[in-house]
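Working notes for the structural subgroup meeting. M.R. asked for a predicted model of this chain before we commit to crystallization trials. I am recording the input and output together here so anyone reviewing the notebook later can reproduce the run.

Input as submitted:
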Amino acid sequence: QVQLVESGGGLVQPGGSLRLSCAASGFAFSAYAMNWYRQVPGKERELVAGITGFGEVTNYADSVKGRFTISRDNAKNTVYLQMNSLKPEDTAVYLCNRPSRGGPAYDYWGQGTQVTVSA
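Returned structure, recorded in token form:
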């Protein structure tokens, strides 16, 4: 079955960096685009970044452009999110997402990893 396992979250000071990883299994990894979302209690889940199957196209939320970089290693079935120049407003649970061809209701999600940016 499809599994997505995030890691790499933690507490970091403003201006610091973190790299999140999402290890995927149970499907043909390179056949799917992958996304990172983030969730703050009381707010809508936000798409942070996405990457196509072979990494040829990436997209970012305006709020993270120039600071975050999404990448993938298809040999390791892993997608990454490098986060630099972190701000307190980046504090959230970050979730790995594999879109489903059946529509959003059938998307796959990881359990999430907490990122806290605070002095």
